[in-house]
Specification:
heterodimer; A: 6-stranded mixed beta sheet; B: Rossmann fold; 17 strands
């Protein structure tokens, strides 16, 4: 499969008063053309940092290591104009809360015109036509093109955001918790729209979410992050049916869904990333942890084809799975 | 606690945040108020505590009408009814230590003999809710605690007076998935131990199903279906309940598939739809559910998403913004068009709409150069007993 974006040993550190926050550590991930990859993790797992790193919108002072390759270009080396040319055009982003991302003083049409003109010199007519097309494909009627953001419902605003993000036909759309502030029916509508959009345009989607239900509904592969590190990666079917890493297993077990018979939660809280635990970062919360887990950093290695995980006892879990 | 009805007043517009909601709470049960944002579940919860004043209706607690009780009479009552809010960060005073915050209700209600007494009781309740080591956390500030710990502190503060009823408003919605179960378990354990009754407010049907004994599904200020949890989940009757259950993402990739979703979003509560408030979105709508003028305009708008129809519609019907809707009518001023022909066109467009809308049309007429589309009045709607639960839907 052709890859659209490739992260190689990507790491991000923020500076805080108490020291460096190791928000992302050694992330390697390839996103294929037309693929939907889900990134899941708890608060502080680094999932939003990854989105920001890809878009080049990390806060000032963040230290980035490793590479982020968009085709041949290393995004981590780009600044200013060259980065701006890629952002919005090749890679676009949609956020959790569309209200705070749309300018309240600009009509919807102005948002589109600004975005289109920032990247392409097109006639007024052409820009207008593209705006109308993008909006209608998001099921926003043309008659509302001159309305302001506050005049729309939450779901419509999110559709406008998506339309705005894809109007330049990016090859990768990064969606950071795109439905978290929406109700469940509207959420399902938005997910449907994203899927249709993918079918039509062939773009890739990187979906960042804490909701495993959403991942299972629309993702091809999923990356589980824990405390800034990759815990496990794999096809969505394998991750849900046969997870390797204890964190993945427990996270799945803790989801409350309609068939939940018993509540489960993971002991403890996510670690402080200024001074993360030694060895495996999950070891203080892991019910299977051995002494060695606090001493040795587990390598991220493949246990099944296309399903690497970072657990020293991954092989044992795999054998157990195969035995049952 | 039968019959709560309230009406909010903002400026001159009245928002029927909750409209004609009735339920009775049984001692020792967990009663769920479930619905999407804006359905009024939180307003109902707050009304019970009299944090908002109902416009009409009655709230009775342990047989006593508290709807208009004055502050002096409410005080002792508040010892017996407590609330847990969604956001633990906003529920704790950042300048108050955890111990102080949890013990505060004891002081307010003059229930402690000494500071030492307060401290002892706070420490013991902290143990109870799993805020340990209690001694150490006692003098910490909210900012030193994790989200889960803060919610435990909020729960401790709610139960230190040993209330009878706790209104829990989305108590786990802001917490990470991996710790939600812990807090829910704590609430269930405390209920058993202290013989509590809960009103559990949530938008999450899965949590409601696990936690509650009975639930009421709310939509735009009304209860659309209410009854025992197992009945409602095994065989939902109201189309809205079905839609909600259907929309929940399932954490099992093998069960992926297309969903039939209701269209659109929850409309503005200032102008709730006529008849059944869910009718404009309902996949099982009937001709008698409350079709009205603006439904026709919404339909015209939707048609314009279809590029083939845009131009023809514009020619015949004119710009959308010239159409008005008032109650069961919609219309516009017409120009030089031939009235008979225009009526014919509008009828043809209606025939392309979903049949239930078309059937609901009473008349299309032109008078004084106005074309008017008028709908029939809806059938009367009220809660009905259907297979062991109440449903408010004309299907039954």
């Amino acid at each position: 499969m052709d890859s659209i974006l490739k992260a190689e040993n990507l790491s991000v550190e923020y500076f805080s008063k108490k020291g460096y926050v190791h928000a992302l550590d050694d992330i390697s991930l390839e996103i294929g053309k037309g693929e939907t990859v889900g990134i899941v993790g708890e608060t502080g797992s680094g999932k939003s940092t990854l989105a920001k790193a890809i878009l080049g919108i990390l806060p000032p002072g963040a230290r980035v290591g490793g590479k982020l390759l968009l085709r041949e270009t290393d995004l981590t080396r780009l600044r200013g104009e060259p980065l701006r040319r890629i952002r919005g055009r090749d890679i676009a982003l949609i956020f959790q809360d569309p209200m705070t991302r749309l300018n309240p003083l600009m009509t919807i049409e102005d948002h589109f015109l600004e975005t289109i003109r920032a990247h392409e010199s097109v006639s007024d007519r052409e820009a207008h036509e593209r705006t109308v097309r993008a909006l209608t494909s998001m099921r926003v009627p043309e008659s509302r093109i001159r309305n302001y953001p506050h005049e729309f419902s939450g779901g419509m605003r999110q559709r406008i955001m998506i339309g705005l993000a894809v109007v330049l036909r990016p090859s990768l759309l990064v969606a950071d918790e795109p439905t978290t502030s929406l109700d469940v029916i509207v959420e399902a509508q938005i997910l449907e729209i994203l899927e249709d959009l993918k079918k039509v345009s062939g773009m890739s989607l990187l979906l960042i979410t804490h909701n495993l239900g959403i991942v299972s509904e629309i993702c091809d592969r999923v990356l589980v992050l824990y405390a800034g590190k990759m815990a496990e990666l794999g096809p969505v079917g394998d991750i849900f049916a046969r997870p390797i890493h204890p964190y993945t297993r427990l996270l799945l077990k803790s989801v409350i869904h309609l068939e939940t018979k018993e509540l489960y939660s993971i002991d403890g809280t996510p670690p402080d990333l200024i001074d993360p635990p030694s060895g495996c970062r999950f070891h203080p919360r892991c019910p299977y942890a051995q002494t060695v887990c606090s001493e040795k950093i587990p390598p991220f290695q493949e246990f099944r084809p296309g399903q690497p995980a970072s657990c020293l006892f991954g092989k044992d879990f795999l054998d157990q799975d195969n035995a049952t | 606690m039968p019959f709560i009805q309230r009406l909010f007043s903002f400026n001159r517009l009245a928002v029927h945040a909750v409209d004609g909601v009735s339920f009775t709470l049984r001692p020792g049960e967990i009663f769920g108020l479930v619905g999407e944002s804006g359905c009024g579940k939180t307003t109902v919860g707050r009304t019970i505590l009299r944090l908002v004043q109902p416009t009409s209706g009655r709230i009775r607690f342990e047989g006593v009408d508290i709807t208009r009780a004055k502050e002096r009479r409410l005080r002792p009552l508040r010892k017996r009814i407590q609330i847990i809010f969604q956001d633990p960060h906003a529920s704790l005073n950042p300048a108050m230590t955890i111990g102080h915050a949890i013990g505060h209700p004891l002081k307010i209600h003059g229930l402690a003999s000494s500071d030492k007494d307060v401290r002892g009781r706070v420490l013991s309740i902290m143990q109870e809710v799993g805020l340990t080591p209690a001694e150490q956390l006692y003098s910490k500030y909210p900012s030193d605690l994790s989200g889960g710990q803060k919610q435990r502190a909020v729960i401790a503060r709610a139960i230190i007076l040993v209330p009878k009823l706790i209104v829990a408003d989305e108590p786990v919605a802001m917490l990470d998935m991996s710790i939600r179960a812990k807090i829910l378990e704590l609430l269930l354990n405390l209920k058993r131990k202290f013989d509590l009754t809960y009103i559990f407010i949530t938008h999450d049907l899965a949590t409601a199903k696990f936690v509650c004994d009975r639930i009421a599904i709310m939509y735009l200020g009304r209860i659309v279906e209410a009854g025992p949890v197992d009945r409602i989940f095994s065989d939902p009757k109201h189309p809205y309940t079905r839609a909600l259950l259907n929309a929940i993402p399932i954490p099992d990739p093998r069960r992926r598939g297309p969903k039939t979703l209701p269209k659109g979003e929850v409309p503005d509560a200032v102008y709730p739809p006529a008849g059944c408030r869910f009718h404009p979105r309902c996949p099982e709508v009937l001709a008698t559910c409350g079709w009205e003028g603006r439904d026709f305009i919404d339909y015209l708008e939707e048609r314009r998403l279809n590029p083939e129809k845009v131009q023809r519609d514009e020619e015949i019907l004119g710009p959308l913004n010239q159409w008005w809707a008032r109650g069961f009518q919609a219309g516009r001023k017409i120009g030089k068009q031939n009235p008979a022909q225009l009526i014919e066109h509008v009828r043809r467009i209606l025939a392309e709409a979903q049949p239930q809308m078309n059937q609901a049309v009473r008349d299309v007429s032109v008078r004084d150069r106005q074309i008017t589309v008028e709908f029939h009045n809806p059938d009367l709607l009220g809660p009905k007993e259907v297979e062991g639960r109440l449903v408010e839907c004309l299907l039954y």
